[in-house]
Design goal:
With about 140 residues, the chain is an all-alpha fold. About 70% of the residues lie in helices and about 0% in strands. The mean pLDDT is about 80. Keywords: Coiled coil.
């Protein structure tokens, strides 16, 4: 009976050892699969990095012409060759009514105003002043 038990134990030990070798083989297979998957992840990451860099370069090439078209600063303002006053009459200063407003708008827009219009505006302002003060 001792011998039967010893055989039984040795048989169990052999099965256990056989199971261990199967588990070791499975463990090695799993490690190999994990290593392969890690390599695939590294490869995909490298591909992604290449695509990101290509996209960045493409955007940079697109943005450069746009920046070249955009003005770097505001264009210089037109230098006024138009006199804003005629003698002592400045339509953009003081009380603006009627003709003063029209002349001032034209002068501020850079439109040349005829001297006769400035003389008429000066006369109109003087007439308004006389009517308001009663100084005829």
């Amino acid at each position: 009976m001792v011998r039967a038990q010893a055989l039984k134990l040795s048989w169990i030990a052999m099965l256990a050892l056989a199971g261990c070798s199967d588990m070791t083989k499975e463990r090695d297979d799993l490690r190999r699969e994990v290593a392969e998957l890690q390599n695939k992840v590294k490869l995909e990451q490298a591909k992604l990095d290449v695509l990101v860099e290509a996209n960045r370069l493409r955007r940079q090439q697109i943005d450069e012409p746009i920046e070249a078209v955009e003005p770097s600063s505001t264009p210089p303002t037109k230098v006024r060759s138009v006199a804003m006053c005629y003698k002592d009459y400045c339509p953009c200063e003081g009380d603006q009514q009627g003709m003063d407003t029209v002349l001032c708008d034209q002068l501020e827009a850079g439109v040349d105003v005829d001297v006769r219009m400035m003389i008429a505006g000066r006369g109109n302002r003087e007439v308004r002043r006389q009517l308001e003060t009663g100084d005829y």
